[in-house]
């Protein structure tokens, strides 16, 4: 009878040791999944902000309004209007010279929203560092803006 009790205590101690070894790895894995989800959310948000800003830019060529629109749509991420780049391109998206001075019908616009992502988990953040994410959208200008 004495041997049976000792074997149960030994098994209970072994289970506790196994649990102590596995739990930190499980928590790290769960936090990694959390950080990957956050990164996907941020990437999706800045891409959506770039698309919304380029939709405004094709009808309103005011660069300040376009930057403000992108910053407004990336509110959950914390993007400032200084993180938004607006470029006026030719219709083939290559040259900036003909359309940079006066964006007009026949030109194109490119809006890029940049964000530096840091993981919330310190260990993962130390391993990955800062990830530079960027959402870019391009579209042809549909009409030239005229001030009311």
List the helices and strands and how they pair.
Layout: H1 2-57, H2 63-73, E1 84-89, H3 97-100, E2 108-117, H4 122-128, E3 131-140
Helix pairs in contact: 1-2
Strand order of the largest sheet: 1-2-3
How many strand elements?
A: 3
> What's the number of structural domains?
1
Class derived from helix and strand content = alpha+beta
* Rg, Cα atoms, Å: 26 Å
| Secondary-structure element order, N to C | HHEHEHE
**How many helix segments?**
4
Quote the beta fraction: 15-25%
Helix content: 40-55%
Roughly what is the average pLDDT, rounded to an integer? Answer: 85
Oligomeric composition of the shown chains: single chain
Biggest sheet architecture:
3 strands, antiparallel
Coarse shape: rod-shaped
Distance between the termini: 96 Å
Given as residue ranges, the uncertain stretches (5+ residues, pLDDT < 50) are none
Question: What is the gist of this entry?
Answer:
With 148 residues, this protein is of the alpha+beta class.
